[in-house]
Amino acid sequence: MNYQIDNLDRKILEMLSENARTPYTEIAEKLIVSAGTIHVRMKKMEAAGVVKGTEIVVDSAKLGFDLTAFIGVFLDKGAVYKEVIEQLNKIEEIVEAFYTTGGYSIFLKVVCRNTENLRTVLNEKIQKVDGIQRTETMISLEQSIRRKAPLNPPSAE
User: Fold this and answer.
1) C-beta separation of 76 from 135 below 8 A
2) Which of 27, 66, 97, 129 is the most buried (most CB within 10 A)?
3) Those residues with Cβ within 8 angstroms of residue 76's Cβ, 6 or more apart along the chain or in another chain
4) How distant is the alpha carbon of residue 2 from its chain centre?
5) Which of the four pLDDT bands, split at 50, 70 and 90, describes residue 154?
6) Per-residue pLDDT at 157 exceeds 70
7) 85 backbone φψ class: left, alpha, beta (φ>0; ψ -120 to 50)
8) What is the DSSP string of the chain?
9) Half-sphere exposure for 115 (CA within 13 Å, toward CB)
10) Residues 126-135: what's their mean pLDDT?
11) How far is CA 82 from CA 86, 89, 93, 106, 132, in A?
12) How many Å apart are CA 9 and CA 33, to the nearest integer?
């Protein structure tokens, strides 16, 4: 579906990005349109793949996962990427994975309870995956910025 995003769609997305629980009726009131319009617009954006669901943000530290680490993965060869990702997807401590250019083939974000848990995840899970040559680990000291991607396209200059 080729759906063109307009200013109303961007305003809807902006409001829902701030609080995904905002009722459509409240959004409609603020944007001076009907709740039905909001509902239809959201359905169209979902069908077009612009909106891929809603998300709840959980503070993993409050659930006992106090350590966040980033792991650069070096593969034996690029051809094993799909098989490696399938295996990494089974490791629950891995919360994000990116196929990248540059030094690493894959860049992982991992949450663990502590350094001992991280060592176990690295030694007994990640590094045992066939196709992984080696890894480099960086421990996060603090998450300083967390935001959604901009909703407005970059201006042409």
Assistant:
1) no
2) 27
3) 131, 132, 133
4) 24
5) low
6) no
7) alpha
8) ------HHHHHHHHHHHH-TT--HHHHHHHHTS-HHHHHHHHHHHHHTTS---------GGGGT--EEEEEEEEES-GGGHHHHHHHHTT-TTEEEEEE-SSS-SEEEEEEESSHHHHHHIIIIIGGGSTTEEEEEEEE-S------PPPSSPPPP-
9) 4
10) 97
11) 6, 11, 19, 11, 12
12) 12
The letter for the amino acid at 26 is E
CA distance 129 to 45: 38
Pairing of strands 106-112, 67-75: antiparallel
At residue 40, the pLDDT reads 96
Q: In whole angstroms, what is the distance from residue 117 CA to residue 112 CA? A: 6
CA pair distance 36, 5, nearest whole angstrom? 17
**CB distance 86 to 155 below 8 Å:** no
The answer to whether residues 96 and 108 touch, using CB atoms and an 8 Å cutoff, is yes
| Cα atoms in the 13 Å half-sphere on the side-chain side of 68 | 13
Q: How far is 38 from 48, CA to CA, in rounded Å?
A: 15
CA distance 26 to 13: 13
Looking at residues 32-47, what average pLDDT do you find?
95
Report the C-alpha gap between 83 and 85 in whole angstroms: 6
